[in-house]
Specification:
Number of domains: 3
Helix content: 40-55%
Radius of gyration: 21 Å
Distance between the termini: 41 Å
Shape: globular
Largest sheet: 5 strands, antiparallel
Number of helices: 14
Number of strands: 10
CATH topology of the largest domain: Hypothetical protein af1432
CATH class of the largest domain: Mainly Alpha
Structural class: alpha+beta
Order of helices and strands: EEEHEEHHHHHHHHHHHHHEEEEE
Strand content: 5-15%
CATH superfamily of the largest domain: Hypothetical protein af1432
Length: 399
Amino acid sequence: MKKKVSVNQLQVGMYIADLDASWFEHNFVQNHFAINTDNTVNKLRKSGLKHVYIDTSKGLDVQDAATQPEVKQVTSQQTEQIAEELDSLDNDVPLESEIEKARGIYKEASSIMHRLMEDARLGKQVEVEQIEPISEQMIESAFRNKDAFVSLSRIKTKDEYTFMHSVSVAGLMITFSRAMGFEMDTIRQVSIGGLLHDIGKMKTPNEILNKPGKLDDGEFKIMRHHVVHSREMLEGKSGITQAALDVAVQHHERIDGSGYPLGLKGDEISTIGQMSTIVDVYDALTSVRVYKSAWEPSVALKKLLEWSSSHFNPAQVKQFIRCLGIYPVGTLVELDSGLVGIVLKQGETDLLKPTVRIIYSIRKRDYVKIKEVDLTKTADFIKQAVSPQVYQIDLAAFY
């Protein structure tokens, strides 16, 4: 049986089943292993991790610890409560009218960020003027349809991850900021911050930045220093406001003080900085890397909710989930009927019942005639989100 325990409860003889953290939150080579020495216990306690899952069938138990099903039940209940509080952002145009424009903007933005970051690697100064026009186009797209640009954030190539991640973070921050009620000028600043939030990685050696595996202790320390590099490259530069800087220098801080580089706690992290921690982790979790598969958006959102007790602002996490939906647009879902479809639009009266584009039948093990189903108007319902790899589905071909 798997149980969630505090790292302070760990002792020799226990078996770690899951470190319960995203890959960039720690530098352990494996996510599951036996605790055989006091050194391992000490390393876990100093790692910044707050909780882990142990497997009581392979090691010592903690009697009063919550089981994994119990934790999931609590998270599911919280998710259902969030679903009752609908997002208030309206779309001016339908997804199908905006998606191709958004795709073109996303591609151009990724290309611009590629060039800008390569220039930064060569020691050239960051000029905000280079990205302001594309930032404005991203904002305009997000205001026409909040889901179109965001839904493209999962479609990244492994070798272009750093550049495309910056574009995705900016797009998510635009929509999140709008949902938070920010004024347009602040949204513009946040967008710039999102695009430039990882600029410091251009000072990180390529062999570390693109290493196809876990980093060792020394490499992990060097990688974390990219936030300091970002501050040095952006602070005081023309066009870089405090709001933009907060995204760049605070997106790895954590509410409980376990983040970096400064170990800020609670309100020591600005509102925008707290938002950026949520967005950065969400996009990283839902992206494919050389050494990790992508989490499904709904799974990542539930994990953010679970981690919000220590890492994130709980109210902001709930707002972010309402903003994207329990099943964000672009999520592949399995229905109770055995049909599989892609979420196209959030339900107007229930976030658990979006409009879905049906494309596949599990029973027939084949594609079916495409049709759109509004789950608020049918007895069918979503059983679970599924990975496109399970059915070898290319999401980009269907929306």
